[in-house]
Every structure is written in C-alpha cells, then in structure tokens.
Design goal:
Blueprint: H1 5-44, H2 49-64, H3 67-77, H4 87-112, H5 116-124, H6 129-159, H7 171-182, H8 186-214
Length: 221
C-alpha cells in the first residue's frame, strides 16, 4: 500500500466541500442545542412540579438514547408519519436536540450557582420572573458556562460523521464515497483525520483559554 499524491489531488476538493457541510451542521446544530438547552433548563427549574418532572425525564430520555438512533428516527421513521426532512435538516435537528439535553445541565448548574442574595435583591426591586432572569441571573451565570458550552461544540463537530448514516455528505461521508468508488482508503481517510485534527486542536486550545479566562479569580493559580 503506497501513498498516492494523485489520489490526494483528486479527493481534496470533495473533502473541502464535505468539511464546509460539517462546519455548517456543527454550528447550526450548536445554535439549536444552546437555545433548546436553555429552554429545557428553565422548564426543569419550573415551580410547577409536573412541568419540571416531564422536562427532567425528557432530557434523560434524549441523553440515554444514542444519537444514531435519533437520527434514524428523524430521517427514516418520520416519513411514515407524513413528515419529510432533508438529510441536512434531519441531521442538524438531531444534533441540536441530542446535545440540548447536555447543555441544559450546563445552564441549570450555572443558574443554580448564582448566589441566593441576587434572587432576593431582584424581588426587593419588584422584578418579575422574566426581568430577574434577563437582567440579573443570566448575565452572571452565562460567563462561567461558556467553556463547557464550547467543549460541547467541539464534541458536536467530532460527532458529525454519524450524519453519514442519513446520507448527509459531510467530511467523512465524502471520503467514504470516494474510497468505495475507487477502492482507495489510505489517502481519503488519512486526510479526514488530519482535517478533524486541524479544526479540533485549535478549538480545544481556544476552549482551554476560555476556561482559564472565565475561571473565578479565587481558583486561578
């Protein structure tokens, strides 16, 4: 088995297109995960016990079932119910819903770590629940959440090869299609690994910098 630069030259444009789809799916999925995660966290903290209970177990159901199964359900099962989604849309919804169950715990922990005195001060100012959350709690709780949320973004990026199961032509699937068509696996799969490293390693470093920046001063070395 020898390395062929001719194969590299032939497959690179396809991998570049696949990388663009991978990045798009990651960021759209992350946006959904962050928005849905915040909503789910607030529902879990609801004073209405039924709402909190349902929200908790909904999050647990999503976390305890594989992302691949959820993607199959969205793309292959929903059409039987009359709901048709394109591969890309099904993929980003799957990523967003799946990781919202994890980001919701990040939000919940961040909100609960805000000192109780802040809640009491809000009540003293006659703030309603929305004003308290919007102007007092979230501005204090979100900065410490940024590092773990950034880590989930990286995790989502590394999970995108699962989208190939529902025919999304992202980075891995672009290489796989070429490999199966030309019976060349060394170069395409090696390049896929390199592409993931090129994106993931700087992102992980950036996430570490964020964690250090937002770490409480009392915990800094």
């Amino acid at each position: 088995m020898e390395w062929s630069w001719t194969v590299v030259e032939a497959v690179l444009p396809k991998l570049a297109q696949g990388l663009i789809v991978t990045i798009q799916a990651t960021f759209v999925g992350a946006f959904l995960a962050y928005v849905l995660g915040l909503g789910l966290a607030l529902l879990k903290m609801s004073k209405i016990k039924v709402v909190a209970w349902i929200s908790y177990w909904l999050g647990e159901f999503v976390r305890r079932t594989p992302l691949l199964v959820q993607l199959y359900f969205l793309f292959y099962v929903l059409p039987d119910l009359g709901i048709f989604l394109s591969p890309f849309v099904a993929g980003v919804i799957g990523l967003g819903v799946h990781f919202s169950a994890y980001t919701s715990e990040v939000y919940r922990a961040g909100i609960e770590n805000v000192p109780k005195g802040q809640w009491e001060a809000s009540r003293a100012l006659n703030y309603n629940s929305y004003q308290t959350m919007r102007f007092v709690i979230l501005p204090q709780s979100i900065p410490p959440m940024i590092p773990p949320l950034a880590n989930y973004l990286i995790t989502m990026f590394k999970e995108t090869p699962l989208l190939s199961a529902i025919t999304v032509i992202e980075l891995f699937n672009a290489a796989n299609i070429y490999s199966n068509s030309h019976y060349k696996y060394l170069e395409p799969m090696t390049l896929v690994g390199l592409f993931f490293l090129i994106v993931s390693v700087p992102s992980a470093y950036f996430a570490m910098r964020l964690e250090k920046h937002f770490k409480p001063k009392s915990m800094r070395g």
